[in-house]
Fold this protein.
Amino acid sequence: MSGAELTRTLDRFLGAHGGDITAAVRDLSTGRAYHYHPDLQLPTASTSKVDILMALLLRTPWRELGTAARRDADRMIRLSDNDAADRLYERIGLETGLAEANRRFGLERTYAPPGRCVDLYCWGITRTTAEDQLRLLAALVAETSPLGAEDRGQVVRLMGEVIPEQRWGISAAACEGDRVALKNGWLRRVSNGRWVVVSAGLIRGRGHDYAVAVLTEDNGSMGAGVLRVEGTAERMLSAFRGEEECRGDDRRAGGGGENGRNREGLERGETRGKAPGTAKSP
């Protein structure tokens, strides 16, 4: 399927849904890439926690982190714990430290606002593009990454161990046997009650490593946002796989998506740890 055909496919799927969306996929094995609404900047919500951890590891390698910092890293990624994220965000120097790290990772249009939003720092309303999220994901697997191999491996490990109720999102596009490492984000706007729902991560298997990012805003509910994210990811990966597409029983079990989703917690906001259930509009 050509890029133009995929765009028409996504236009048809998303035409029944309101709100903004940007998405991108890159086959890291071949370099083939696709972007949907590439110029759009949207909030990261909790997906920025991966960025925070990567920025931390630029300063202090994993093997040199103390027990408390490792515990916070684990809780921040696997459980989406916001208090842990706040502590590590302070440790990297807040938005200034994040911006410095992002320059090293090659991000071009990702900006974290200063200050606090409700009772947390404003990392949750960092604005980014899907392309920048692919650049960040690529830095987790590339040998030329500013991060060393051990540190990259620790981040990917934690993303691969996200608790089951938070494994919706781009995992819906995975085939049985694929390895998925992801981080999802979701928040409800104080100003209008609408939802930001985001998913970004790596899908690896069958000789291909895919970096995938889908960011949505102005969803009527969290569940509606998850449907948009997963449906978009599934269609992009289906177009990339072509004749190799997984079908029926070959779809990854527990991946969620339109083929049977574990909806536990989708309407509750973040689980296990204080969450950005609400946020001020940037």
Notes: Confidence is low (pLDDT under 50) at residues 253-282.
